[in-house]
Amino acid sequence: MADSLDTARGGRLPRSARRAQLMEAAQSVFVEAGYHGAAMDEIAERAHVSKPVLYQHFPGKLDLYLALLEHHTREVPELVNEALTSTEENSDRVAAAMSAFFKFVERKDAAFRMVFESDLINEPVVAARVERMSTACATAVAEVISEDTGLPDDQALMLGVALVGMAQVVARFWISQEPRMPRHEAERLVTVLGWRGIAGFPKSGDQS
Fold it and tell me: What is the Cα–Cα distance from 131 to 116, expressed in whole angstroms?
């Protein structure tokens, strides 16, 4: 019965394609309603499948939420690393990393709300994934800081955490504003603030 209803609603799809469809529908519901306000019925309806089909792929709402969170918390460090490898000039690399957060919050899927504004953040498994993501981003930025300043790893990581934290908080503030300043101007302000702070440390190899 479930398969026939599934076929009637949206046609049979390969398992991977169906899973992607379900996750896309679920994300829109989680973004709009939060984890606690989201209902599996609504997710199934939005995906145009029967509820039994949804449960064939995801045993429960938490499983579905964690699948999405896992995807996005792995994606953000990848975006930051892509930004850092896009140029060889350290100031430009930091600017590109800051820009990655602004681009992420501007996306139409609003994935940043699940990553940075989750109403399930007190759930240990959720907190662990978000912490892992933040550490990965900060570590990547810290490598640039260490290279530019010669600071010890622990100090460079502290600054990396500060820059990444600043970038995601300001990006979220920026996206919430109406009217909103152009993204390039917001990125420039954050980058200037961050890079001028880093410039206060001696350059790597500076013996003065």
Answer: 10
